[in-house]
Each structure stands twice: as C-alpha cells, then as structure tokens.
Amino acid sequence: MGRITIKDIAKLLEVNPSTVSRALKDHPDISVSMKEKIQQVAKDLGYQPNYQAIRFRQNKSGLIGLIIPEMGMFFFPAVVKAIEEIVKKNGYNLIILQSNDLLEKEKENALVCQNFGLDGLLVCLSKETMDVGHFTETIQRKMPIVFFDKVIQQKECSTVVINDELAAITAINHLARKGYKKISGIFGNQNLEITQSRKKGFLKALTKHRLLHYGEFCFHADTLEESKRKFAELLEQSVLPDAVFTMTDQTLAGVIQAIYEKGLSIPEELAVICISNGNLPYYLNPQITHIRHSGYAVGKTAVELLFDLMNDKVVVSNNQLELETFLVELDSC
Amino acid sequence: MGRITIKDIAKLLEVNPSTVSRALKDHPDISVSMKEKIQQVAKDLGYQPNYQAIRFRQNKSGLIGLIIPEMGMFFFPAVVKAIEEIVKKNGYNLIILQSNDLLEKEKENALVCQNFGLDGLLVCLSKETMDVGHFTETIQRKMPIVFFDKVIQQKECSTVVINDELAAITAINHLARKGYKKISGIFGNQNLEITQSRKKGFLKALTKHRLLHYGEFCFHADTLEESKRKFAELLEQSVLPDAVFTMTDQTLAGVIQAIYEKGLSIPEELAVICISNGNLPYYLNPQITHIRHSGYAVGKTAVELLFDLMNDKVVVSNNQLELETFLVELDSC
DNA sequence: ATCGTTTGCGCAAACGATTGCGGAAAATAC
DNA sequence: GTATTTTCCGCAATCGTTTGCGCAAACGAT
Prior knowledge:
homodimer, alpha/beta, Rossmann fold, six-stranded mixed β-sheet, 12 strands, 44% helix
C-alpha cells in the first residue's frame, strides 16, 4: 500500500472521511472516544496529510517566493540565509528564482510565481527593470509583495531599503575627517536607484567638503572585472586619488585587485572605504573600513514585513522601511 | 470574476470541460475547428492553468528540494546558482532548506520534502549526520535523491563529490615541490567524510615526502573564528610552519586573518595553499594558490544527475560521480 | 443497402482533504 | 411523558484538471 490517506483510515474504522478529518484536527463535533480511536489509528498507520491536496483546496501554496538578480558571493547569501530561517519558522517554505539581471527572466519569474499561487513574494529587481508593472498588475491583488534593496519607489509598494544617500555621505564624511581630499567613487549599474542615491550622497558630501573638483575620479562598473579594469586604468593616470569609496562589496573586490596589482599600500598611498555586507572587508589586508549594510538584516526585515502584510497586521499604508547603517572603522582609512 | 478556469471556458462555449482540456493540449480527439475556437477563447479570457490543481492531480510538485547546512559566503552560493539555473531550465523550481548543521532540522526538512511531494531532492548533509536513514527509508522510494559534497557513501546512494584525498595530495605535492617542509594542515569538522578524506590525503602526501614529523601543526576548526583563533595560537609557538594548507575557503579566511594580524609576509615567511571554490583566493594579497573545487560544477553535476535519475536515463546503478579538481598556481606558494 | 470503422465529443469518476447542512440518537428541561 | 436542546456523525459537494470509456454521427467499404 502506498501513502495512507484519510479515506484509508475511514474505511478501516468504518466511519466517514469527514469524521476522520475533523477528529484529526480536534474539531468539537467529534466525541473524545472517537477522536482517540482515530488519532491512534492515524499514528499507527503513519498517516501524513497530503499537503498538496490541502493547499489545492485552500488555494494556498505554503510557499514564499524570492526573486533576485543573481546569487553572488557577497550580499544575497546573507539575505537568503535570513529569509529561509524566518520563512520556515512561520511554517512556509522558500522558492528561489534568479532573474540574472534580465527583465525578460524577471517577467517569466513573475508568471511562475503567479501560477504557483505563492502566498507572498520578495523581490530584488534586476538592473534592467524600470517599472514594476509585471508584478503589480497581475499578481499583487492576492499576493503580497515586498521589494527590497533594488527597488523602485512607488506609493503602492512596500519596500525595505537603507538610506543609501546617508550611507555614502557617512563614508565620505569619514574620509574628509581623516583629511583625504582626492576621493574616487566607484559605483554599480547606473539604472539602479541604490546607485543613484549613493552617488547623490557621494556628490553631496564632496560638495559640502569642497572636494567636488575631484569628481573625475568616478566611474560605474557592472561587474567585478569591469571595476578592476577601470580602476587599474585610473591608477595609470598622472594624478591619483588619495582615497577610494566603493558602493558595494563587488566593486570593492575589483578595486582591491587593481590596488594589489599596482602594489599600492593601504592606507598610506590610498585609503579605502566601502558600503559592505561586512564579510569581505575583514578578509582583506589591511581590513577595510566600511558602512555596514547587512544583508541578513535586510532579508529579515523584508520577510517580516511580508508576513505582517500577509496577516493584515500592518495598519500603516506606507510600508517603506529604511534600515540603519553604521560605520565600522578598521585599518584602511 | 476571479481566475478563469477550464470550466468557465466550457460553460461559455457550451461544451464539456474535458473537451476544453483536450483542446488546449492539442489532443487528436478534438476537431481542428473546435480546437481553434477553444484556444482563441482561452487566449481572449487570459486563461492560466491552475498548476496547483494539475500538480495535485498528477501527484507531481514541479519542485526540486535542496537541503544544505547553511548558506555561507563561499561554496553554497555557487552551488545554488548552478542548481537554480538548471532546475528552471528543466521546467522545475527550487526549494531551499537549511539544516543549520543540525541533524534534527535535517530530519524536519526531510519530512517537509516528503509532504511537499517534491519530485527530486539534492542534499548536502549536516556535520551531525551519521547515516542517511531519514532520507532513504521514507522518501527515496518515489523521490530520487542525489547527495553531494558532504555525503555518506553507501551503495544505494547517488553521490557527487570530488576526489578529496587527491585534492589534498595535489596541494601538498605542490608545497613539497616548492621546497616547503614544515607544513601545517587546517581541517574542518572531524565527522565529515570530506574532512577525513582530505586529511588522509594530507597525511599520505606528507608521509611520501617524509615530512610527517611536522604533523603537530594540524588542527580542526568548525568556524572561521575557531580557525583564526587556533592558528593565531599556533603562530605563538617557538617552532613555526613554513607553509599552511587549509581544506576550505572558510578555514582559509580564518587563517589569513591570523597571518595578517601577526604581520607575516606570504609566501616569504609563510606559504599558503587551499582547496577553494575559487573566489576568495583572488581577493587576497597575495593571491592564494589553490585547488579549484567549483561549487558551480558540483551543483550542476548533481542536479543533472538528479534529472537523469528522474527520467530513468541512468543505466548504471552505481551513480557515484567524482569531479576533477585542478591546481591554480598564484602567488602564495 | 448493410456492416464496420473512424471521428468528435460528453459523461462521470478521480486525486485528498474540507465543510455546510441535515438528521438520528442521546441528553436535558418542563 | 413530551418538548427542546445538545451531541455526534454522515452525506454530498467542492477545489480545477485529467482521462477511461461510451456513444452517436459521419464516413468508408463491399
């Protein structure tokens, strides 16, 4: 015999399946003696409810979806770790979908989510995404969504982000306080709001400290390799920066490789600061001063907000959370 | 009106739902004219099949499960990336479960997989796991399983691993060839087969090169912090190693921190080699010579084997694959 | 014209669990 | 002793889709 079903138990005890169903969930309509009998048999036979059937009937999937651009080595592992833990704690499970930073794949993923009847969705947008219509139009009526990290701010959307502008300002303030003047800024993809905000903060802080004339030390890089290559080129010029700010771990990794290859000493010849999840900076020599942007905290906050939405616990309509960041001062500046 | 179902289309066209179902999947029993009519209406109404219902009826979940100890920063992100890509390419989706290296949670996860009716399962065992009964007894009759990386070799199990012993031997041979003699070995959790195999290879190679009398430079460490602390202690002793081998990125990260803090120069005062996924070694200064153990390749191979099992494509009963590793010589030795 | 085959579609059961309703038996009330 | 309530369980429909079977009508062959 294959899997034990409610029908099997019912047949064995010569009762109706509905009685078994109610007995197993302690329904008051069933007598104590009958409950005990049924629960005993269920236990003996090793009955396991068919959740597939339950979810089908209740039109619940028991699943939370997570769409991310790509599982890299820095930020998203921490996000995923947090989300998986909390999703499981709430009795759900986690489905992961990668968009590979392609709008097309993101749309496909949105469809998959819809067809799976996911109970909730967490999204970090691809760099190609310019609006979130493919999520809101079709899905959001019944499926709560929380956007995090790479988001597009709209008033109907729940989001979890950090104050990107402030994070960059904090970094530059630190450099300025330490006396660095020729500050280079390395940024990610231009389309992203986080890039724009961090760059805005960067420029704002430079302006405040009257250092803006060194703005030519800035560039954008989508990949680690591009970051490395461009920074290596920058280091070949006649006028060199005395400090560099990178807006992510990924750009940091590229910049660091270029610095090592050039043989510059940190911080004597070049100071370094970045916004980071908080792992890589500790592995490097010297350790890198950074603004802590914890993927774990972002993931945790996003998924907790999602469950609040799912349980209608959120009174406020404007669910746009902003996490705190803080400076971790190490040896690189 | 909510979601469009087959019944809705049937009612609209005054035909039977079964006709609609067959027409939509191009069944030969349905006339061409009827097919066209039905498919047109389905399109107009924006019909989306309820996969939940389909999977329920067919007793298929469309899901592949992945159980890992913990999403760290080094190996598993690459594994997950590969698996997600291939799973999706085959029309499935991926559920991720973390065991946190706890046998209890691993058992819970196995139950979840069962109840979800997953179509296939990929497992990297926790360090507490001593046998795989909680998988094989209950699940494997209907759900193919592939164990990878941290496995327990049994003849009924499909596994994907590397030749751990050979990887360690390759590393030590390289050190010996370069003239290093006092070789320290840093290993992960003792229970794991990968640890035992790598240590075995380490000792075997040391023996071959008549360097075994330096065996006191070895220890085990479960975490990055433990690795750092113990190696820092080791560096306080009177006799120091001239080279260190770490069996993972995680132990490498700890060892590197201890080396940096002590201010030793690599490779002049201390050579370094490791088995690595191939990211971290490039971020360090100098870059670390390593035996490449690609998480992406492991994940890809494991999930491809899984699909072969699911499609009964595997003729051989003994599905124990061993991936190639190779030496990447950089600056640390 | 008769018989056999193909074509095209409907009927109804099934997957496993849930739930509103109804009703017989038991318990309580008067 | 009758009326009313409570207790306890069964009946049957339901979720959306699939599928074996049956059966008319149309077609083809002789």
